[in-house]
Amino acid sequence: MLSLTSVQISAFIGTFWWPFCRIMGAFIVMPFLSSSYIPPMVRVLLAVLISALLSPMLPPVPAVDAISIGALFLAIEQLLIGFMLALFTYILIHVMTLFGAMMSMQMGLAMAIMNDPANGSSNPILSQWFLLYGTLLFLALDGHLVAIGIIVDSFRLWPIGTGIFDLPLMGLVGRFAWLFASAFMLAIPAILAMLMVNLTFGVLSRAAPSLNVFALGFPMSMLMGLLCVFFSFSGLPSRYSDLCLEALSAMYQFIGGSHE
């Protein structure tokens, strides 16, 4: 007759439960998987499947009673580690949202707001457009597979029970500054083009005060902005692929991986 002790049951549960917590924490914020269009049951089942495949290959897991306060703290710790790892990809995707918002403000389309039922927010239409484009580029570059691979490697590079405060948390905070810098880098050609248009109409208004510059300038600014959007798509994939590589490299280095 098969008999199991409470220690063996706790060890068996812990071997599967801790990886599940970390992976599920990542799936809460990871692009595409965190969308409300993906049913929660699909995310849970995917996390269960990855955890079941991963548990035999994990390094020794600390022996913690599965129904103790220590187990609760360890589960919360794994959720936070997964959340912070996936936050790198979340910031990467929202570079495109901020990029679209910058262009919308310059061309006068910031007032064109569209509700996003997936994220529960309201953003300019261009932001939604670029967000969708960036998500498709991220999936086409297999960024989601690389991100899941980094999460799997995190169990080797940052084993369960190592702690959370030894992680380079300031590096994660610095990614928010990287978000604004990257979006501005993508938008600066369009911003400069729109600045030249506004300067031109400013000079025209001084040269011919009787001319209704507002009635002429607003449509021309919008047409020039749409032209800038059209030309932005020519070099956007290569630049965004570099941003993807940079974000995934930072995600890998966050858990102690080498730069190579």
Automatic annotation (TrEMBL):
<feature type="transmembrane region" description="Helical">
    <location>
        <begin position="41"/>
        <end position="59"/>
    </location>
</feature>
<keyword id="KW-0966">Cell projection</keyword>
<keyword id="KW-0282">Flagellum</keyword>
<keyword id="KW-0812">Transmembrane</keyword>
<feature type="transmembrane region" description="Helical">
    <location>
        <begin position="130"/>
        <end position="152"/>
    </location>
</feature>
<feature type="transmembrane region" description="Helical">
    <location>
        <begin position="213"/>
        <end position="233"/>
    </location>
</feature>
<feature type="transmembrane region" description="Helical">
    <location>
        <begin position="79"/>
        <end position="101"/>
    </location>
</feature>
<dbReference type="Pfam" id="PF01311">
    <property type="entry name" value="Bac_export_1"/>
</dbReference>
<dbReference type="InterPro" id="IPR002010">
    <property type="entry name" value="T3SS_IM_R"/>
</dbReference>
<keyword id="KW-1003">Cell membrane</keyword>
<keyword id="KW-0969">Cilium</keyword>
<comment type="similarity">
    <text>Belongs to the FliR/MopE/SpaR family.</text>
</comment>
<keyword id="KW-1133">Transmembrane helix</keyword>
<keyword id="KW-0975">Bacterial flagellum</keyword>
<comment type="function">
    <text>Role in flagellar biosynthesis.</text>
</comment>
<keyword id="KW-0472">Membrane</keyword>
<dbReference type="InterPro" id="IPR006303">
    <property type="entry name" value="FliR"/>
</dbReference>
<protein>
    <recommendedName>
        <fullName>Flagellar biosynthetic protein FliR</fullName>
    </recommendedName>
</protein>
<feature type="transmembrane region" description="Helical">
    <location>
        <begin position="6"/>
        <end position="29"/>
    </location>
</feature>
<feature type="transmembrane region" description="Helical">
    <location>
        <begin position="176"/>
        <end position="201"/>
    </location>
</feature>
